[in-house]
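Task card 7
Instruction: Convert sequence to C-alpha cells.
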Amino acid sequence: MIGPTILPHHAVIANIEGVVTVTPTSEEAECYVECMRIHETTVLQHGKVVRFGHHHAFRFLDPAVDEVLFSWHYTTLSVALIWIVLVVLILVNHWYV
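Output:
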C-alpha cells in the first residue's frame, strides 16, 4: 500500500493455526479494527473492517467461516429448490386431473 499515512512497514498480519492477527509495527502506524485504533496485536474476526492509515479499508473474511456459511447457504438453497419443484409438480398434477 502507498499513501501519506502508510509507513513502509506499517503492520504485520499473521495467520497462526487459523487465528489471524494484525499488529501495528510502531506507534506511528495507524491501524484500526471496526473504527477503533489498535496499538497491539489484535485478533481479527470474520466480517470486521480493518483500516490502515486514513484511507485503506478492508473487510476480513475468514475462509473457514466463509466455507461454513457457503455450505449452509448451498444446503438451504437446495432444500428451497426441492420444495419449489415439489409444489410445481403437485400443481401441474392437480391441474391435469
